Description:
17 strands, Rossmann fold, 4 domains, Alpha-Beta Plaits, Ubiquitin-like (UB roll)
Amino acid sequence: MAINLTIDNQPVSVEAGSTVLEAARESGVIIPTLCHMDGVSSPGSCRVCLVEIEGARTLQPACVTEAADGMKVKTNSKQARKARKLSVELMLANHPWDCNACVRNQDCELQSLAQSMGIEEVRFPYAKETNPADKSTPALVRDMDKCILCRRCIGVCQDVQGVGTLAPRSRGFETTVGVGAGDYLEEAICVQCGQCSAVCPVGAIYEQESIDQVWEALDDPEKHVVVQTAPAIRAALGECFDLEPGTRVTGRMVTALRRLGFDKVFDTNFTADLTIIEEGHEFLTRLKKALVDQDQSVKLPMFTSCSPGWINYMEYFYPQLLDNLSSCKSPQQMFGALAKTYYAQQQGVEAKDVVVVSIMPCTAKKYEAGREEMNDSGYQDVDYVLTTRELGRMINQAGIDFVNLPDSEQDSPLGISSGAADIFANTGGVMEAALRTVYEVVTGRPLPMDKLHVTPIHGLEGLKEAVLPLENCLEEWSFLEGVEAKVAVAHGLDNARKVCDMVASGEAEYHFIEIMCCPGGCIGGGGQPRLTTDEVRKARIGAIYTEDEGRPVRKSHENPAVTQIYKDFLGEPLGHKSHELLHTHYRPKGETPAETKG
C-alpha cells in the first residue's frame, strides 16, 4: 500500500510503514541525523532530525515518525532549523573541543554537522565531568567524555551482533553507555569486533592505534619489517582518500606500503589459499571418519575459523560447539608463523629480527595477534595490526599522494595468491573458495558453476544455504558418491547465534558452515572506513568479485607458491609441520591453553 504525502511542498509516494526520514530521502531531501542507522531501530535520541508537521503540536523526530497519507512536512522551516541547531549546540556543550587532537578530526559527523549549521562557537559552558579513556582491551578504546548518547553503538551491539555488551546506564542527565556490570571493557563479555567503533559518529569509540609502534619498527635498521594486506583492504582503502566505495586500489596500496618503508609487501591472500588447502583437507578427513569409519567423536558440521570476533563469540556463548570449529588458524596468523620460520630461513634473517605488520579490516585482529596460542614461531607471530583506517592515516602522515600513485605488485613468494583468496573478504567467500577446491579434489572436475561462483551463498541475506551434489567421484573419494554436501553461510553474530542454536539442538543438517563476525563479511569489518551501509558493502563486494574474475589463477590449490611451500617446507596438508604452525585449538573463556591441553 502506498502513502502519499508532501515534503517541502513536493509530492512523495512511499510504502506504508516508512518513516518521514525515509520519505524525505525518496524526495531527494537530506534530513540530518546522528542516531539513525539503516537496518537498526532508531532511538530518536539525538533530536537532530526534527521536522515541522502540519497539525502537530510540537516538532517531530523524522527518524521515528511514521509517514501518513496526506501528511504535510516542512524539513527546513525556521522553527525546525532553530531546534536542530540548539540540539547540536547542547551536544557540543557536553563535548570536549579538542578536535585537532582527536582521532576523528575531519572524519567526525558532529564536527561536520556543526560546520554545516554555521556553529562557530558554543553558547553554553562545558558541563561534563572529565574522565580518563578506557584503554583496557587490545582492540578498542572508549572515551566517554566524547559520547553524545546517540546509542548507535548499543543498537549495533545488541540488534546486529546480538552480544549485548553495551547498554544505557542511569537515566536523564546521568545517562551513560555502560559495559556490562563493570567500568572497563575488559571486564565485559566483548568479542572485540569493533562494530561499535564503525558506527560511532564521534571519537567516543575507536581502535587501539599502533601507528607509532610501526613507525618505530620501520625506523629501526636492525629490524626486517614485512607487511601483509587482507583481501578486504583493496576494496575499501580508497575511501580514506575520497574515492568511491568499491574502488579497487590494490596496486596503489602496494606502492604506498613500499614508500612507507616496508622491506617486503606481502599478501594475506597467500595464506588464505593455504587455509583452503588445510581446511579443505580437514573437512574431507572429518567426512571420511564420519561416513566410512563411523567415528562418533567426529564433530560435524565443521565451522570455519578465520574470523577472530566469531572465535571470541564461540568461546563466550557456545563453548560446547568449539570442537566443531576448524582447527585452522586465521590467514593472518598462518602468515605470521610462516614469516618468522619459512620466510626468515629463506632470507637468512633471525626470527627475532622479523617484524610482521598486518593491515586488517578488523579490530578483533588486534586481539587475535596477542592471543597466547599465536606464538608457534617461538615469538609473537604477528607483531602489530593496523586497521584500514590506521593505514589511511599513516599514508597521510607520510605525505603520500595516494590517489595518483602508480600500481605495483606484491613481493613473492608470500605475495602470490589466487582469486579464491580475494573473495575471503566477502560473506560466502570462504565457503565458495573452499568448494572450488574440495569439489575438484573429490571429482577431478572444476566446480560446475557460472564463473566458479556459488551464487546461492552470495549477497547480504543473513543466512544463506547451498546444496552441492557429489557425483562421479574419483576412486579414492568414492565413499562420497551421491552425497549432497549441504553448506550454510551466516554473517553478523546475531545470525551466527541462530545457526549455532540449530546446530546445538541437532536441527541443522549442514556439513560445513561459514561464519563471518561482521555484516557483509570482512568488507564490513569494524576497522573499515566509516560509515558502512549496505550500499557501501555491495560496492565493496562487487569490487572483490571483479578482482577475483580478473585473476589468472582462481583456485587455491593451483597457487604455485602454495605448492612450493608444501614441497620445500610444510610437507603435506595436515602434516606434522602444518599442524605445528598452521593449526590451533580454542577453549572456553576463562580456561588457559595448559588446561585445554591437559
